[in-house]
Amino acid sequence: MVDIILEVTGSLFAAIIFFTTLQGLRHHSVREQSGTNLVIAGFGLLFFGMLIDITDNFPELNYLVFIGDTEAQAFLEKVVGMLLGLLLLTLGFWRWIPSIKALESTRKSLDQLNAQLDQRVQQRTQELEIANRQLNDEISERCKMEEQLQYRVTHDPLTDLPNRYAMNEILEQQVSYCHSQNVSSAVMLLDLDDFKKINDHLGHEVGDRVLHQATNRLREAIPDGGSLGRFGGDEFIVTLPEIKNPEDVKLIADLLLKQFRLPFVLLERDFLITVSIGIATYPRNGVNPQELVRHADSALHRAKIDGRNIYRLFTDDMNKVLARRLALEEQMHGALERDEFSVNYQPVIDLNRQCVASAEALLRWNNPILGAVAPDEFIPVAERTGLIVPIGQFVLKTALQKTIAWRERSHGSFHIAVNISPLQFRDHKLASFLTRILEQTGLPGSSLELELTEGVLMDSSEVADDTLRVLHKLSIGLSMDDFGTGYSSLSYLRRYPFKTLKIDRSFISEIASNQGDRELVSATISMAHRMGLKVVAEGVETEEQLAFLRLERCDLIQGYYYSKPVVADDFDRYLDCWSEPLVASEKAIV
User: Fold this and answer.
1) pLDDT digits (tens, 9 = 90+) for 253-292
2) Which CATH architecture is the domain 340-587 placed in?
3) Phi and psi torsions of 224, nearest 5°
């Protein structure tokens, strides 16, 4: 029984192997092996021999196989079949050995390749991790740089305050909030008074220190919720997002002014620097940021006019001033090309020689829309817009061309005086322009006198110093205009080569009745003579004024007593009146 089980098991095993081999033949790589057919045949014979052995124990199954008639034949068939099967299997396996070796070699190669691939994958993974970390670092650094760039875009690098761009956004948010909550707010514009003098005389480094100190002082006075920003230059802006009581705005403005009552310590010296403030409130003075800032600027301008170191709230009257200023700026552009400007001339009388010694060229503007505009109104606009430079060149050119004939009539003693603004004096082209126009007219430099105010000299720079050297080389005269109205006029007289000093009309107007003005004028004339300067008294209108000035030995007289400013043709006729010795009243042009 055990033999039967073993034989059956062996036959099943052979059948399974035979079947598996047949299944393997379905694969192209197995069919191509040289020993495959021998292995199949060997398994077939083994299976056949085992089947014969099984049928020996079960005669009823003899019909399944062909068996010899005798046991010897059957045994021989079984033995031959099995031996032949084993032989075929051996030959087949032997033929498979090179393929198996090749497969083993291939497997080892694949293992090596897999190991190399794993190593490269690990290496690449490490590289990618490093690259990823570097990329994350770069992204973080880029984000930081973008944040820094955004901060720089929205903040002033000197004071670290929000700049104009950032403050406009803050104002947008403030207006939106006030509109939704139905509350009031305020905008303040602050400007340091005479800050330019600090920059020009002490240098920009000291000016930067002033801005730092001013920033710290303003921060201390800003209430919670308020914002402080720098609008540019020496101008700051304060926003107050919620104002419950209108008087609170005034209290805060007073507090801001108070911050500047203590002097600034610069270069171991004390400097008193004040601030002017313009205020506009929402919604009374404007409902959008642009309107609020514009009106606050108008109020600031009013504070400057009213004496500085004060605050001003925007009023409707300032709207008219603003509209007028905008109209002046609009009409002034192109006015020179439209021949709207002209030059008038006011004679200057030499009291000693009793003749017309010179004339002052005075600019006039007659616009078809605005009418005749006063110089005090349009000249500041021309300076602010920069148009004063070409307009000033027009005055110089026109006046010098007229001076040619007037010098011939006076046998070369006549000269023309022309006012020069600070912006003109800082123009690096002024010296070359004067050189060229004198060459074109053929006039000597002594025929021209430039009237400079203290403001011109306070704005002095390297360009201005170069211009002064050229003026001196050309023999162009310098006159100190409006003497006595500034703070440092005496020091400028000592430092620069002035030939003439002009006493301001504000001191002349009351010398007949004001003892203090008489003493000041008398002292000024005496001092100027000691310095070798000629003195011109401006604004002389009465006989009493003239008598006092003659008594004090004033050299030159200018004013309505002799003549108002007139056009060139009338000035020609005025010179004709002086060809014969007539009294002043007969020579006056009314």
Assistant:
1) 999 999 998 888 887 788 888 999 999 999 998 899 999 9
2) Alpha-Beta Barrel (3.20)
3) -60, 135
